[in-house]
Design brief:
By secondary structure, the protein is of the alpha/beta class. It has a single domain, classed as Rossmann fold (3-Layer(aba) Sandwich), CATH 3.40.50.1820. The protein is built from 5 helices and 10 strands. The strands form 2 sheets. Strands 1-2-4-3-5-6-9-10 form an 8-stranded mixed sheet, sandwiched between helices. A two-stranded antiparallel sheet has the order 7-8. The radius of gyration is 16 Å and the shape is globular.
């Protein structure tokens, strides 16, 4: 598949969410793209938005494969209406974004989320037949007094890629490995060496890891 001829082609719009409109950006992909993609941002109370660097580089990895990629701001973030709901209402926001992608493109969806976006998004996506693969970046275990739970992963049978930094204070190696162990195959856990939670200085490696995994499972490289 060829990469998009105009990678800067972006649509800015509001999509309808359960608590009001959600500010969204769509990076347009190839017309014949076999998948669409959704990328979710980190915790709003920590300054997370759809413009986060990890989210942006994840979008670049997926868009570089020709896929249309949707990002949006969770409720109460940026121009999105509503109020932060500690992850409960945010799962509904994710489902609203998935519904929009489904209506717009009528094709299978790949999901990616960073930190809070990974926790909330995977919870909403696991078991959804529209979702063919999931990518969790910087899987949080304990952060700023919040403890994240992953019991739902036991029923998540889609292919899963977990990418974490081996110096991530919010996702210690032993804790992340214990969580990943609860998830059924197929799954892959990739540790980025000398990387913190935000993958500072390592985002190109994160991006290439995503590309290789997606090409392996979903979008073969051009021959």
């Amino acid at each position: 598949m060829n990469t998009p001829s105009n990678p800067a082609s972006i649509r800015s719009f509001d999509l309808e969410g359960p608590a009001g409109t959600l500010e969204a950006l769509l990076n347009r992909g190839q017309e014949d793209a076999p998948y669409s993609a959704l990328v979710c941002h980190p915790h709003p109370l920590g300054g997370g938005t759809m413009h986060n660097k990890v989210v942006y580089h994840t979008m670049k990895a997926l868009h570089g494969l020709g896929l249309p990629v949707l990002r949006f701001n969770f409720r109460g973030t940026g121009r999105s209406q509503g109020q932060h709901d500690n992850g409960r209402g945010e799962q509904q926001d994710v489902r609203a974004a998935l519904d929009w992608l489904d209506r717009e493109f009528h094709r299978p969806i790949l999901f990616a989320g960073f930190s809070f976006g990974a926790n909330v998004g995977m919870h909403a996506c696991c078991g959804d037949p529209r979702i063919q693969g999931l990518i969790a970046l910087g899987l949080p275990i304990v952060a700023e007094g919040r403890r994240y739970r992953y019991e739902y992963l036991t029923g998540c049978r889609q292919p899963k890629l977990f990418i974490s930094g081996d110096r991530d204070p919010y996702g210690p190696a032993a804790d992340v490995e214990n969580v990943v162990a609860t998830a059924p195959e197929p799954k892959q856990l990739v540790w980025i060496p000398d990387a913190d939670h935000f993958f500072v200085g390592k985002l190109n490696l994160v991006q290439s890891t995503i590309v290789e995994w997606v090409q392996h499972y979903f979008v073969p490289a051009d021959v």
